[in-house]
Amino acid sequence: MKTSLKDVYNSRFLARQLAERDIKAQYRQSYLGVLWAFLLPLGTAFVWIFLNNTGTVTLSDTGVPYPLYAFSGTLIWSIIVASINSPLQSTNAARGILTKINFPKEALILSGIYKLLFNSSIKVILLILFVFFYGVGFHWSLLLFPLTIIGAILFGTTLGLFITPIGLLYRDISKLISFGMQFLMYITPVVYSIPKTGIMKSVMTWNPISSIILTARDLSVGFEPTFLIYFLVVLGICIPFLLIGLVIYRISIPIIVERLSA
User: What is the pTM of this model?
Assistant: First the structure.
């Protein structure tokens, strides 16, 4: 663990170079460029806004303009999903050089985090514009909102570290993640609030992702974060598991890469 953390620190320059290369390659031949960073959450939010406005789906009162509620939820959700996929995607993309060059594998994880921070910063700017456009305005809790985004990235990266070794061996894992996250979205207060009663109230309340979504949304719109304690507990649990995940990643990746190249 000590060696892994040391390599994380020492590979900062390499990770930044890898991140810059991937970001430039991602948008080089794209007409819309960085707009793709938030087109998905915008599209998902607009679908639910349309369903709500047309009466196709009747949703309970959210306390804020529904477009802002839906977009903030889908935006934070997209960051969590991207964070979960990031370690596997970064490692898969570097599979060719992993078999040829000896370098700290932790640089790939750090590179993925740099890319997440870059893409998330664009989304945060757009959300702030939404906050002012819908009349919520500036409030001091908005300054704490970026910290919840870092918490979302920490949570997703921790899960991704445990998934990556298996995902490298079996391609079905990435498809299962996509399918599972689509289902999980409907038991998380992304586009609708937690019900007042029923089994879904308990499921959504105890869902750890709910604490991230709700805390980030509350801070962005100036509400008192009712799930703040649960959010801090989730992050506190993530930290030791992140360290364990780094150790598992460090030990397993060279073995898996050797097996795949055999």
Answer: 0.89
